[in-house]
Each structure stands twice: as C-alpha cells, then as structure tokens.
C-alpha cells in the first residue's frame, strides 16, 4: 500500500529518527502488514544494521519483537540472532513469558539451534508455564521439538499444564502439541496423563474433525499440515500402546476412525521430492547392478528414499563383507560421535533436565 511504502521509505532513509522502542514497534507494524520480506528487502537490511548497532539498548519487548519480525518475514540473519540469543540469556529474569516464547519461536522458525539459549531459558519457562497463553504454551514445546531439543523436564512439566488447557487449544495447537511430543518421545506419568484419559483425542474430534472447520478429506490446504502432524502423533501412539500392553498398562485412546483415515490420506499424499544427492546415490546403486526402488510408500504413509532388495548380487555382497571386515575397530562410531537422534532418545529417557538434540526426528515443523 502507499502508506506502507512511505513508512518503509522513511525508515530506510532516516533510521536515526526512530528511538529504540520506536524502532522495534515500527518493525513489528511493517512486518505485520507485509508478512513477507520479499517485497521490501532493503527494509530488513537496514533493520539488521540498526538492531545490531543498538542491541544493548533493547529491553525485553524490543528483543522479542525484532526476533519475531525477522522470523515472520523469513529473513535469515544468523549474526544478529546469535547476538539476540546472548542478550536474551543475559536479561532473561526481566523477560515476560510471552517474550521468551516469541524468541524461542523465532529461532525455531528460522531453524537456528542455539544450545545455550534453549538450555538457559528452560528453568524460567517451566516456572512460568501457568502464565503462558495456550498458543505460547504449545509454541514453546513446538520450538524445542522443531529444533531437536529433547528436554524431558520441560515436556513433562508442560504436559500437566497442557492437559489443563486442552479445552482452550485450537486445531493448530492440538496438532502442534501432538506432533511435538511424538518427535521428542518423552515418557513419564505426566505425559500419560496428557493422553491416556481420551481428552486429547476427543478435543481433536471436536476441533480438527469438525466439518464446519474443514473437510475431513483434507481438502482445505490450511489444515493439511495439521492432519500430517496428527498422523505422526497417531503412529507414536500405536508404538506407545504396544509398549503399554506389554507392561500390563493402559493404551492411550486413538482419535476417531474417520479422523485417522483423513490424517493417513493426507500424510500419504505428500509427494517425495528427491534431492540431487539422492539421485546420485540411486544412480550409483543401480550402476552396481542392484535393483533398488525410489520413494517407496509404507503402510504408515512414510516415503522411503531408496529401498534395496532383500538379496544383493553375490559378488557385491562378498566385496562389501570384505570391506566391513577390514575396518579397524577405532573406525566404528563411538558414543561421543553418536548421531543427534541417538542423543535425543537417550535424553528423553534418562529423566534429566537438560536439552538434548534429537535431530532427524524433527522433520515436520508446523507452527
């Protein structure tokens, strides 16, 4: 609009006219009106320069506003975000729960992991969980899960609060909540309490499967991501149900059959997009005479990049066996070099309070 263009022009030409608080408020207003950094890229370049220069003057609200602006506009500024993380940790005792959530959400939205930030803020976030809005409550666990931080103490504490606030959660909130817990795979009585009484499944039936909100077949794209996320929760629920039965415990109730079917259809309909590296690997496998398949859809709806046959050509199998036997013992991956996913699973079961990375589990972010 002419007004927005004029405001951006004034800001970019004379940023010094804006006091620090005015800088963050103006940035928030422009981003809210635009919601896409592509239209005024120069504005975000100037904002980055000014925010970096004045960061020491920012209060807690200004810090969270600036982080939110860049994340919402999808403008990546790693150096500024690193400075924002350090500044947030330094003044965390002054920050309101909403501001803390905004910062964490912004980092997750930018896929920018910062171990010190997420670990340092966790005690304060847990202590203030009951002061958060339902959106902030869910957004916080989504942020930890999306970046691969499995924080058992936080997820258990938030499970208690989330159960109390279930009637307040929207379709997006329910989907994000279920997805986040499925990703980190945290176990505990608090998590059981969140899901085992059927309140979560019933709320999903009322809110997500409501025909007034969207077609159960997922025809409205706005809700397709919610269905995909809920399908991942359902897959996790099945695993946990099997474990519970083996222990003689109680399985969590599933969502309705109609909703489960809709979730599975939408999840399975997501076409795989092979990367160039995947193509190169497949070409190499085929060149070895192996009849591999690409993008194979499982019954659960997952797409497997490359699937090898049950048996390999005899000469190739012999070669691979000789190579494996020739490897020195030191070449095997040690505990120190374990994958992020392994560390995440360890962290989710040891009862500790630190944040652990659970990398490859966090592939579908939805907030």
TrEMBL record:
InterPro entries: FAST_kinase, RESC6_dom. Residues 54-213 form the RNA-editing substrate-binding complex 6 protein domain. Residues 326-367 are annotated as: Disordered. One of its GO terms (biological process) is mitochondrial RNA processing. One of its GO terms (molecular function) is RNA binding. Coiled coil: none annotated. This is RNA-editing substrate-binding complex 6 protein domain-containing protein.
